[in-house]
Amino acid sequence: MQGGPLHLNVRGCLGITSIVPRKKFFVVGVVVRTGGVKRSDLFNLDGRLAVITGSSQGIGFAIAEGLAEAGARVVLNGRDASRLSAAAHALGAQALPADNGLGAFDVTDPTAVEAGIARIEAEVGPIDILVNNAGIQRRQPLDEFSVETWREVMRTNLDSVFFVGQAVARRMIPRGQGKIINIASLQSEAARPTIAPYTASKGAVKMLTRGMCADWAQHGLQINAIGPGYFETELNSKLRDDPVFDAWLRKRTPSGRWGRVEELKGAAVFLASAASSFVNGQVIYVDGGVLAVL
Ligand SMILES: NC(=O)c1ccc[n+]([C@@H]2O[C@H](COP(=O)([O-])OP(=O)(O)OC[C@H]3O[C@@H](n4cnc5c(N)ncnc54)[C@H](OP(=O)(O)O)[C@@H]3O)[C@@H](O)[C@H]2O)c1
Asked: Is 198 a catalytic residue?
């Protein structure tokens, strides 16, 4: 690591900043000295720009908050512009204002995706981090699922990862760097009754993550996934309100409880930062241990 000038860092500690060309940000971290103790700054996202799809609420909003807390500027995404604007205001200064419709597009529409990503890059700057989070759940016995609902789940949970991932990667590749984090699921590995299309879509997100790694890692990109277990969000409101399911889940989960959305921030910051610079094509399951035990 190269030496650099003494400075006061964002948290007010006297430190030494390494002079690192921007292009190598994700490979080389920064070391800060506080009172003789060497402290790694590998998780610092100062100066990074992140786009998080489906982030007006729930897991996407929590991940956006986590990335912002680590220093990134964040652009939120969703279809409802007014909810998006309220969420951006709730996040504060690190969130780019959504009042002018920035980030408001439907991730299932490839034309809207391309226009939305082009606008973010033109008006804000190069995207360093993409989180493909937007997703929906539809519950029904598989033999009763309509073709249209099957397609709705697939285009929201899977097609969108391809559309947004490709639009962003086409810009990251010439820059030789970029972090893409896809939100998979516990259901990328394990099925449950009445959610077969969701399970199929999330299994495919896991494999698309590996496919993106196979094609794009050579260009300096890192593409990984987070597989959440059961978290308390609107998507799961029916399950949370069902005492039988609630009791079953607490018994089935080694940690004995539902996840809290803020517990996904750590994995997201890790995968978005220099700390994970040689991690590629992986899924990190954040599920309280469900997949580890029968
Ligand atoms: N909750 C869990 O326990 C859990 C577990 C495993 C995986 N996951 C995954 O985590 C992700 C987020 O889940 P969540 O529970 O936070 O869901 P949620 O609370 O229902 O939030 C979904 C978000 O996605 C947005 N969205 C939906 N369709 C969209 C579209 N076509 N274009 C743009 N934005 C869209 C919604 O905003 P608008 O409606 O305004 O567009 C909203 O902001 C999903 O991929 C889900 O499968 C969740």
From this structure: yes
- Residues 6+ positions from 236 with CB-CB distance below 8 Å: 137, 230
Active-site residue identified among 198, 258, 270, 285: 198
Q: pTM of the prediction?
A: 0.90
Gap between the Cα atoms of 51 and 49, Å rounded: 7
Question: 224 — phi, psi (to 5°)?
Answer: -135, 175
pLDDT digits (tens, 9 = 90+) for 220-270: 999 999 999 999 999 999 999 999 999 999 999 999 999 999 999 999 999
Look at the domain 49-292 and name its fold: Rossmann fold (3.40.50)
User: What is the rounded CA–CA span in Å between residue 268 and residue 184?
Assistant: 12
**Pocket lining: 234 vs ligand 1, CB cutoff 6 Å:** yes
Instruction: Give the SS3 label for residue 213.
Output: helix
CA torsion, ordered 245, 248, 253, 256, to nearest 10 deg: 100
Distance 17 CA to ligand 1 centre (A): 38
Residue whose CA is at the smallest distance from ligand 1 atom 7 = 185
Q: Is 205 in the pocket of ligand 1 (CB under 6 A)?
A: no
Name the residue of 136, 195, 202 to mutate for ligand 1: max ligand atoms within 8 A of Cβ: 136
pLDDT tens-digit readout, 94-108: 999 778 899 999 999
Domain ranges across the chain: 6-40, 49-292
From ligand 1's centre to the CA of 132, what distance in Å? Answer: 10
pLDDT tens by residue, 61-94 = 999 999 999 999 999 999 999 999 999 999 999 9
